[in-house]
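Example 3.2
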Amino acid sequence: PINLDENFLFAARVELTPLGLVPRLESDVRSALDRKDPRLHLGGGVMHNRRTSPWFDRTYGGVDLAFFWQGLSLNAEGYYRVDEPYCARRENVGGADACVEPVSPEQRTEALGGFVQVGYFPHLPWVHEHLELAFRAQAFDPNQQV
């Protein structure tokens, strides 16, 4: 594989499933027998990357939660990103690429977002595996400084 620039994206993620494997969907679509066992998922991750056009360091962070039991599902996720600029203009100075116009800390930008979703398969004959009632709330602000 070829890296497109001289920088690397560094990433780390941790996931915990203390009650066993969880469905990889947002609903409790397990069989009626499997739904009797609760399932919990907790996760989080961070990433860091240096961009060279435009010139800034970008850091991401996120957390997520999922819970499933008796046809009930709860999913939530939070997201945060910050861009820290380090150069407004670069030029070739003495044969080397150099920053000739530094940036001020006020040019830092942030993004914040997340969602919460609750779903439930009602325990009614003929629909308990086919009909889910769900509610979802979400928000995303791509740049809190603007």
